[in-house]
Design the sequence.
């Protein structure tokens, strides 16, 4: 069984999304989960725009803000490890 040692800053960022991998959780699996979560939130934001719950003006800013909450997806899974 392989043991992975996640960087503390990565664990802190994951915790903000409610994700808490254990030592044997593959970083690729966690990365995929967080990417799926980001895409889910992005789709939800787009759906709110389509339903006119949010104005078109400022939509781009909301997308950028959402992206800033997910900086880990720009890293490769192996970069999450010490």
Sequence:
């Amino acid at each position: 069984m392989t043991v992975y040692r996640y960087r503390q800053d990565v664990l802190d960022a994951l915790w903000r999304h409610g994700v808490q991998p254990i030592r044997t959780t593959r970083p690729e699996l966690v990365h995929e989960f967080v990417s799926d979560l980001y895409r889910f939130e992005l789709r939800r934001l787009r759906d709110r725009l389509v339903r006119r719950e949010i104005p078109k003006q400022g939509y781009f800013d909301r997308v950028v803000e959402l992206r800033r909450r997910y900086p880990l997806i720009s890293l490769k899974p192996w970069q999450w490890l010490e």
